Amino acid sequence: MKAGVIGLGAMGYPMALNLHRAGLLASFWNRTPARAEALAAETGVAAASDPAAVAAACEVLITCVSADADLLEVIDALLPGAHAGLIVCDCSTVAAGTAREAAQRLRHAGAGFLDTPVSGGVEGARKGTLSVMAGGEAALLERACPALEAISARIGLLGPVGSGQATKAVNQIMCAGIGQAVSEALAFGRAMGLGLDQVVDVVRAGAAGNWFLDHRGHTMIRDENTIGFKTRLLVKDLDICVDMARAVGGSLPTIEGLLPQYRELIERGHGDEDHSALYRIKRRLFPELE
Amino acid sequence: MKAGVIGLGAMGYPMALNLHRAGLLASFWNRTPARAEALAAETGVAAASDPAAVAAACEVLITCVSADADLLEVIDALLPGAHAGLIVCDCSTVAAGTAREAAQRLRHAGAGFLDTPVSGGVEGARKGTLSVMAGGEAALLERACPALEAISARIGLLGPVGSGQATKAVNQIMCAGIGQAVSEALAFGRAMGLGLDQVVDVVRAGAAGNWFLDHRGHTMIRDENTIGFKTRLLVKDLDICVDMARAVGGSLPTIEGLLPQYRELIERGHGDEDHSALYRIKRRLFPELE
Lengths: 290, 290
Prior knowledge:
The structure is a homodimer. The first copy, chain A, is about 55% helix and about 10% strand. By secondary structure, the first copy, chain A, is an alpha/beta fold. In chain A, helix 1 runs parallel beside helix 6 and helix 3 crosses helix 4 (about 70-80). The N and C termini of chain A lie far apart (about 60 Å). The mean pLDDT of chain A is about 95. The interface between A and B is large, with 74 and 74 residues.
């Protein structure tokens, strides 16, 4: 199988490396050429001149971009190279409706589409242990499996195109709410005068244990938030979630309460930090210790 | 070493069984005699006639009761049997101040005290894999270790008496906030028409992974909340947390927003269910599906 990647960001770049380790990486492209050049140097695989060239060279094409408009732009740009043997697996986080739109544009060119957003952080992308939330036809997923298995430890098919993104929305709501629980609890622990490194270690071994505490607990208490998932991208995802909830007449009070706190973080210049930077806000719930 | 247990509830009973498996269980007592009789039948160890008899027979005495007043009552009742070789390890969840009061009463009798609240659920109590959050003197903890190791997978010493309870408060704040994140996210997923068993399995493998989703995800979506941590006990713990936060001039907005939801659950007759019953409330954020 020949696989390609479009979008070599914090997630896409290590995913491409794992495809290369599996012997599958045939082509790739990135909007900022420097990232593609770095990957070419690291793998010996040549960068493509444009998205259509990646599509033409691949059976499975993984896209991993930041926003809904970026995805549709990339889909349109790769269409000239699309063919009946091509399956585009979009690992970006976009609205379910955007996934359905992408699938439709590719269908006209005879190519297949799966929405395959992922979770597991940059660590999961590096280790190839991501969780893939797939939406689309089972037969297409089966064909795409060798590529998806090279980047993940678990793949779930949740339903038709869009179901992967709906599940990713569930995932993001949960991640944000957990981030709030952890950062508010640790701010409380700080106010109690506890040694937070020890608290993180003992609490993570019990019923409050969670990925976020395991991977961000020790760094967030030092305001080290450079590695991880950018706050401004989480806000983009959560805005999608709130829109999806409202579209069915519902609401997400926990997320609606969180968004102003994240927006304040962005205004204060922390938008490119991991969302564990929320601890900066939660600390202010307590008077500063002497 | 001879160990004893006072309080054979959902946590205390399996903890006593693990002490017995380690060859340490010498005595025990429970307010409701039937539980003590059941443990005597299961272990062949005789139940004591009163708390003082347990204290007299032990070097390490684990107490595991439901509320602050119960703990101080048990401490007073065991004092006639207290001796210089005795360490009381209180695994209940109470206020840090109550732990300090218990330590003082025992000190007058020459006995030692550690606050050693635990986390890990009834599953952790059964498997002997609890996380112990200890407060008190390191030398006492070292002496008590054989008994605590029989019930736990991890023991952390957080500081002087009361520090274990302060850390348990951090733990409960985190547990409750995670419970809210998970139940609100799954209510959203239900409204999106997703198959929630599949969602639980794929989401738990990513960055939203957490103990609560692992152990309560598949049951909460069926309103099966019989096993676990009773909502009314979590409310009792969270009231302590809010009081502790206010005592230092702080606040816990996430918990203050959750408490009315839990109280509503109790009013509706779900107080003895695991707090994953919160999903019953969160479902109402979305109009019922056809």
